[in-house]
Input
Amino acid sequence: MKSIFYIILFSISTTSISLAQTTLNINQTLDKKDNWTQKDLIEPSALSAIIANPKANQPQIFNIGVVDNIKGAINMGGVSEKENLGKFKTALSKLPKSTFLVVYCGCCPFERCPNIRPAVNLLKTMGFTNAKLLNLPTNLKQNWIDKGFPITAK
Output
């Protein structure tokens, strides 16, 4: 009976160690791929509350993808295209480095989005100190529109 208990305990321990190593490797891969941290994100509910409050410090919002415009956003087009990235860089060059900025795409989940990494990299390279990425881990529809947050009427 004791030997069965030890076999089960050993199996559970080995599986736990294996899973922990797998999780660590997945996280390390994501960390290397993503060029933002948790502090670089702004939640949809927080941005929506800021937009709704005329007394709040309003951010300059840039749509860096091919999705609907959030209320007040400037549409740059998908910045994975060199021409649109250049247009975004030109727009940024006219702003102070301390400007409160929010960028978003929302075309697809973060891990597959071709637009957010070039945009975040440009913001960091240009030295913007108050830039945020809108946390839309799934897409704009699910994480913004379906929650009733404001978009520009078509």
Summary: Residues 1-33 form one domain. The chain has two domains: 1-33, 35-147. The chain is about 45% helix and 10% strand. The helical segments are 2-33, 44-52, 82-93, 116-125, 140-143.
